[in-house]
Predict the structure.
Amino acid sequence: TRLTDVTGVQTCALPIYTDRVAVFSARLHPQKGGEVALRAFSLIAQDDPDARLLMIGGGEDLARLKALSESLGCAPQVHFTGAIPRARVAALLAVGDAFAFPTLRNEGLPMNVLEALATGLRPVCSAHTRLVFDEAFPIDYADPHDVPAFGAALSKAMSLGAASTSLLSPGYALDACAGKYLDLLLPGSAG
């Protein structure tokens, strides 16, 4: 796991950044799949005492997920940030090796997955989100209702580790997206 993010900025000081780290970043609500991520991680943690899960976000499910981590026996390996300022998300993502997003709902274009890709994390997403993403992205997909399969895919992504640069294609860069919006709103302005 990296000690700096892809821009070379020192990441936050968490007691987990020398281990294999999976990251989940979303509002902690049942439909976002935090429970699936936690259950999948608990299977990894049984075989890997150095594995860690960083749960970024706050929400109505926070207390229940903390209690679940206790009952699954993986609480010492899980770090919950609670609600954090948006500006800190990239630094927290940068401590990871892989990203988990086992959402149970149909998503538009999940920004959390794009943010993970931008920081070099390889995501494992719900199989039903496959049509949302560019097929060139290095995303693995697994059924969120099959916790062992999701856990196996997440463990594999963790073993591969994070890339040292963004995994987003250039078309997703801020200037490219801004230019497309400008051209849409003011035809011919993006040049």
